[in-house]
Amino acid sequence: MKLLAIDTSTDFLSLAVLNDDNTVVFHERVGQKHAEQALPHVQSLLRDAGLTLQQLDGIVYGQGPGSFTGLRIGCGLAQGLAFSAGVPVIPIPTLDSVAEQAGATRVVACSDARMQQVYLASYDLGTPCRLSPILLLDPEQAGSELQLDGEGWVGAGDGFAAYPVLASSTWGPQLGAIHNDIRPHAASYLRLAQSGRYAHLPAREADLLYVRNKVALTSREQQARQR
């Protein structure tokens, strides 16, 4: 299988190209320079992998949730490249990538959504399936809105680093380990895409999973959160 994976949902630029059994990866923190750095690095990875765009079986991208601007950059790049090459796009939710990297069967994936909120979902990777919808919650709501059955769960994602209450008291002993340094990663998207569980869509149908429809709080809302 020959795939290009793109994720720009965080301050990292994460890219990977799969050419059958050979994978080349670029994964570095670039801040807000995704737009200027993504295409040159894509071209470099394709060259290193010995592929052209037209030889790809599809272009995978992080569908969201994540940074609004970053998601649009990644989706736009994937869509444009797919159009030009005549290949499908494969959108994959960012939390699926976070969960896939946890190295466990029962995973709570949790990413920092900023504005004092988190994105989170629970997974059974033995099945494999997402057990819950992807939720946007205040950290204090997480325990009541996302209830875990039994013990042996693993936490994954930078939401646990941003809001330690999630590990210390929300789910307590149900979480056997916390991997709070995991972020969406292009190599993970490649593995997920190869599972066959994600739809291959025409480039014109590339879409995003925002979860949050509001980008910023009003001044009054900011003051209310500080009380």
The CATH class of the largest domain is Alpha Beta
CATH topology of the largest domain: Nucleotidyltransferase, domain 5
* Total number of domains: 2
Q: What's the number of extended β-strand segments?
A: 11
Strand content: 25-35%
**Which ranges are low-confidence, i.e. pLDDT below 50, for 5 or more consecutive residues?**
214-227
Structural class of the secondary structure composition? Answer: alpha/beta
What are the SSEs and their pairings?
Layout: E1 2-7, E2 12-19, E3 22-29, H1 34-49, E4 58-64, H2 68-85, E5 89-93, H3 94-100, E6 106-114, E7 117-124, E8 129-130, E9 135-137, H4 142-145, E10 153-156, H5 159-162, H6 165-170, E11 175-179, H7 186-194, H8 219-226
Parallel strand pairs: 1-4, 4-5, 6-10, 10-11
Antiparallel strand pairs: 1-2, 2-3, 6-7, 7-8, 7-9
Helix pairs in contact: 1-2, 3-7
